[in-house]
Amino acid sequence: MTISRRTLLGTGAALGLLTACGSNTGRDKGSSPGGKVTLDHWYHQYGEAGTEAAVRRYAAAYDKAKVSVQWRPGNYDQQTAAALLTSSGPDVFEVNGPTLDQIQGGQVADLTALFDGVKDDFNPAVLAPKTYDGKIWGVPQVVDTQFLYYRKSLLKDAGVQPPATLDELVDAAKALTRNKVKGLFLGNDGGAGVLGGTPLYAAGLSLVTADGRVGFDDPAAARTLGKLHQLYADKSLLLGAPSDWSDPSAFLQGLTAMQWSGLWALPAVQKALGDDFGVLPFPKDGPNGKPSVPVGAYAAAVSTRSKHQVEAKAYVKWLWVERTDFQEDFALSYGFHIPARLSLAKKAAKLRQGAAADAVTYATDHGYAQPLLWTPTLQTAYQDALNRIVKDGASPDSELKSVIRKTKDELQRVKKS
Amino acid sequence: MTAPHRTTARHRPRPDEALVRVGRALRWVILAALALLFLVPFYLLVRNGLAAEPDITSPGWTFFPSTLHWSNVRELFDDPAVPMARSLLNSALIAVATTVGTLLFASLAGYGLARIPYRFANQVFYAVIGTLMVPAAVTFVPSFVLVSSLGWVSSLRGLIIPTLFSGFACFIFRQFFTGFPRELEDAARVDGLGYWRTYWRIVVPNARPVFAAVGTIVFIGAWNSFLWPLVIGQDRDAWTVQVALSTFTTAQVVNLHELFVAAAVSIVPLVLVFLLLQRYIVAGVERSGIDD
Amino acid sequence: MRRRVSDNTLWFWIFVGPFAAGLALFTYVPLLWSVYLSFFDAHNTVSPTDFVGFDNYTAMLRDGAFTSSLGTFAVFSLFIVPATYALALGLALMVNRIRRFQAFFRSVFFLPAACSYVVAALIWKMSIFNGVRFGLANTVLGWFGADQTAWLSTTHPPWYWLVIVTVRLWLQAGFYMILFLAGLQRISPRLYEAAAVDGARPGWQVFRHITFPQLRTTSIAVVLLLVINAFQAFDEFYNLLSDARGYPPYARPPLVYLYYTALGQGQNLGMGSAGAVILALIIAVVTVFQARWFGLGRKEAD
Hints:
The structure holds 3 protein chains of 3 kinds. Chain A is of the alpha/beta class. Chain A is built from 18 helices and 13 strands. The longest helix of chain A has 21 residues, at about 395-415. Chain B is built from 15 helices and no strands. In chain B, helix 2 packs across helix 15 (about 255-290), helix 5 (about 85-115) crosses helix 9 (about 165-180) and helix 5 (about 85-115) crosses helix 12. The longest helix of chain B has about 35 residues, at about 15-50. Chain C has a single domain (about 50-300), classed as Orthogonal Bundle (MetI-like fold), CATH 1.10.3720.10. Chain C is globular, with a radius of gyration of 24 Å. Residues about 300 of chain C have low confidence and may be disordered. At the B-C interface, helix 1, helix 2, helix 5, helix 6 and helix 7 of B face helix 1, helix 3, helix 4, helix 5 and helix 7 of C.
């Protein structure tokens, strides 16, 4: 028996049907009518209402290219990392980085030229981690910072002063813990994730030194991190809240007297609590200690896989360097952020009063940005160690020793390439 | 369906009437309690989805809230930030197309492996079941790069076609067809039908239960898959319902009632499919030899 | 034979060809690509140039986090496999024996299979086992005056296992119950009659000497599927325990660890692929060993 023509036709039809059902949803990359190129611009999903409409409005205002904004929910880092390997990724994307490996791997374009004449107007603390090899690889959009929120009334009821040292924080959290209200919320993992290097800087140390060596190879590190375990062991920490540290809900719902969260949460806190709250930096620890708050910035970067790098750079320059009105709107209209431009930060009226002013002062005086050399691998290793120190009461000495060893190896690796 | 048990039960020995009765009552109590326990999560989903935000987080959390806010459902569909209706449609399209395609390819292959003599049939079969042991997450990045180089990113094509070739489905079909009574096919063969027509006229009509069973498993998997649609469906127009759902869980500020109502809406179609088809599914699993 | 061999070959490929081609393109190409990557220093690239031999493999095997993730898998299987097996079998035995509302009970127990891990994890994390006063578990415990427990955040005792195991148990018990029900249907009533004649008491004795041995093939299939699925566990762990900053070092199964190694910003595809290959090999060995141990495939050798 041979294959009949009908058989072949049947099979072909079935295959054809399947291919046909995959009609393209209609994104054509490249040029659009009118000769303008189309640029894909990716943002991660912001929690503040109105942000998405705002970035779409900015994109629509650009007249040299058609900008298609993509608002990406969930797992943003994974999505961009995968997309950057292909040409179907974004032309312009915001990134909590770029990371050292993205820069060394040639995945992001050199944007140094965009900063001509305005470089000094960018907040130096957040510009530094975007700089490698003397070149700048991303334009900081806004400066975010985190600090400690506390309920004034609850502290007063418990007869507790706002803590100025880590020891005082431990005591305060313990004193504030009641039956159904905990003293302190550092995230559902007990603080290892969100605090990161902050306690080290509060002890007068750092993650990586300016000359690229391990910044916490010091007995003070173990001593400070050990105190975080005390918080956990005292049962002063709120754990297992339905929303995490980035959301002020736990603080507002009265589940905790103090919470570590971001500047972006300030409007919501102000609205709910009025004057009944204050903000503090992470308190200092030890003789060489100083208060510390983390600062960081999402940056706009250009993918080297983009077919329209020149246009993409021009667009980034237009939006994140030239259009200071949009930058101001983006920073201040949807939740609070500190503008990345010093000139804008200075005239931001909203940031000059009350708790916001305190927060900005902390960011200016005590802010530290995570160094570029602190790679995701190291972050995981350190975070694992910190988690074990906090929750399992693991010996800070031996945990840190293995992180230090790993850090030396990794710093060696990235220097080599 | 229930007939066989009746026979079984009637023939079962009953030495001590009282003991049997106690046993039966106990069985009922345990089953009812477990059933209730199994339903609690569904209830919580609906309860929290239709509650006002304070009802979810209030210190005096109660099992039964005072009022149900059906407006939450409208709020969800009206939310401009999340294209809920569109993503439900996408999910339905993708799940149906994936199910149809998987059934077609896997059943044909399963039949070929089970019935058509070929020197290397065993080797091909081992290559198929070998894929069952490779976790998909492992080949994720190369798969993505591959699909992207085909230009299929953000298209239904890219969301559907790469997922159509399920080693698991092929394995089940092959096992089922191996145990399929040969007499039927032999009769067809005598009538002069070739493999192709035997397959469509005799085999497929007699294999409906296994199609139902595999189809359901594939449909559930397609509806619930997350990572692939997240990365492939870059445009908002290509979001599936799971991706839309994730916008609520990854937001900086979590809106609990909207999250729960979205989750509830996302499982409604599946639950309906399940309730409607469950008779066939059960019959299918029972006859498919999945457990052989 | 009228049919020539070449005809059979042709027909074989007509039936199997489309599937095989798709499998080759969408599974084997990425798979071999991953194997290739595992021999390179592949940071943020899929076309690496820096060949490192087996370095990634040795580094991965020496990585304490990876080996401990294998331990996590072992613990997880020890919990989930017997628990699901016992619950599914128990449900099947009970549902099989009742006469009325059988379909109802079967539906209720099977229904969770329609729920995605994402949704189930959401209910478990936010509603049942959240660590604050309005979580269901804490509310119930509160009636008895117990303190609130942070189920997912407490490592001593490791309550998170309770959350992780119950969510999967809820999702999958019904499916395996159906498999057992199918197995029970196939047991000939005559065996029970014979047992009654021999004076076996209904209940334990009948179960031990008739029902359980007759369910042998079903049991083997169930255990195999449970173990393979446990190995590939990702969704509930990820959705229950990950946060914006990553994943805690406990209850981290291999796939979750590899996900963080190979995807995301620290995109170390070489190490990730090496870990994946190791994992796939382990799954293969375990499966083959299990199959041999249970004597699976004997039927096919007949």
